Amino acid sequence: MNRVVTRFAPSPTGRLHLGHAFSAIAADDYARTRGGRFLLRIEDIDGTRSRPEHVETILADLAWLGLAWDGDVVFQSERLDRYQAALDALKARGLVYPCFCTRAGIAREIAAAGSAPHGPDGPVYPGTCRAVSAAERVARLAEPHAWRLDMARAVRQAGLLPWHDEIAGEQVADPAVFGDVVLARKDAPSSYHLAVTVDDAAQGVTHIVRGADLFAATHVHRVLQALLGLPTPVYRHHPLLIDADGNRLAKRHGAPTLESLRLAGADGRALADDLRAGRLPTGFLARKD
Ligand code: GLU
After folding, report:
1. Structural domain of 123
2. Among 86, 201, 204, 249, which has the highest number of CB atoms less than 10 A from its own CB?
3. pTM to 2 decimals?
């Protein structure tokens, strides 16, 4: 069997909290106990929300927890040409189209329609720009635009999309419930879905250990793997930590950041061992999303 490769892939848009620690430890330990490699990838394609100071804090927090990644830290902001190449391959096959809609325009259209199908990420894009003619597309390409996957066409081309989750069992991807997802944004040359799929394959990730909140997104990643001819890793979506009120840990719910615990003098390695043993700090629980 290939050597196991896992990764932790935080977005440097805020401080890490206990949920991130739990996830990083799960991915690290999965590789370590199997003689594999654990990688760190900073998902900083969102130029408006990503901050270098968050990157520094992430590195310090992981070291404090006693985690060490193999090889160099990979930054998505340095890999934009790879995402562009993947998008170009999909463009050449007529699987993506430019979308000139604004958020407000989409919301108006959905409101006017009275009802809209809901996907895991909210209301499904009504497909307005899918109907724009080829000539009009070319004429309007100077306008700000995103690129969307023509999901119906993609699903037809991709065929059956099996994947395996070590906790949830065998799955068959149903990405159609997401509708025509954005693969390149107006303000960023890639979306999360495209970048994560390209990078996990390029970095040889064999096992994706991450939170159950990303379970549904795997359906989109699976169809992109099929379209781009990339291997499908094994997945392990772990339960999320929640607080005593049932809220997912997040800054807005007052979850302590790892940085605040670190600066207060807490022992990061002891905390990591507690999380490993399922001993959660008072007031926190693990549950499946
Ligand atoms: N960057 C994503 C996040 O911070 C995680 C990506 C992944 O694990 O696939 O939520």
Report:
1. 81-184
2. 86
3. 0.94
